[in-house]
Amino acid sequence: MLYLFYSPNVLADEKWVIGDIRISGLQRVSAGSIFAVIPAEVGDQIDNYDIRDVAKALFKTGQFDDIQMGREDNTLIISLVERPSISSIELEGNKAIKSEDLLRGLKEAGLSQGQVYKRSILNGLALEIQRQYIAQGRYGALVQVKTESKPRNRVELRIEIEEGEVAVIKNINIVGNHTFPDKEVLKDFELSSGGWFSFFTNDNRYSREKLKGDIETLTSFYKDKGYVEFTLNSSQVAISEDKKSVYITLNIKEGNIFIVNDISIAGDIPIDESFLRSLILIKEQ
């Protein structure tokens, strides 16, 4: 939040020459970095509008919770309250995902040790960790972030995680498969709605990555059979209210089947044509 106050002299619109600049409240941030960003220096003529520009430049750095400007004779006074930095991020309760993987995901989302701490980042931090668990099918994962103040204006973040169980697939529904029955279309899927061996194979445990692979398998299934216009119109993943069950729906359009009527080999090739034809996997109909 940005607060400004001015002495009666500063409120005047007339220009005055900066004889000195006094900065207070710095802990982590160096005075040099302040002088590097503000559009004013000793010897400049400034007025009220110029002082506002100085405050705006400091605000844009994102380093401060409070910025106050004042004047004492010909000295420009800048009083600052720094935002703390993140001293460390501690994880508790994570077993399914390694700490280094969670921290890597947080860093990619812009949350890491040494970053300026803002209260608003807590929600983003929790959501990023939940996103990683949702990718594993753990829709019931709970994340709580606690803070602890440390010396030198730093904050430690402690993240407590309840991973929950991986959601179980109750049904995979293919809509639009008029030529092939569900059983044939789904036979090569890595995911399934469960069977006798699911306890050992975990093939009924939902995973976003596995679903992507199964969609590629479905596409190959049709195109290998001549359905070159096959398209996946949409894929929906519905979660039960208790977040323990998953229902997958794939809406497809098979398209027309294309048949090879003739294969011609052209060109002056010093190889027996019958041998070349034996290497071609596509057969004439």
Automatic annotation (TrEMBL):
GO cellular component, one term: outer membrane
Keyword Membrane applies: yes
Name of protein: POTRA domain-containing protein
Cellular location(s): Membrane
Membrane among keywords: yes
One Pfam family of this chain: POTRA
Domain POTRA span(s) in chain numbering: 16-83, 84-164, 167-255
Species annotation: marine metagenome
UniProt keyword terms in alphabetical order: Membrane
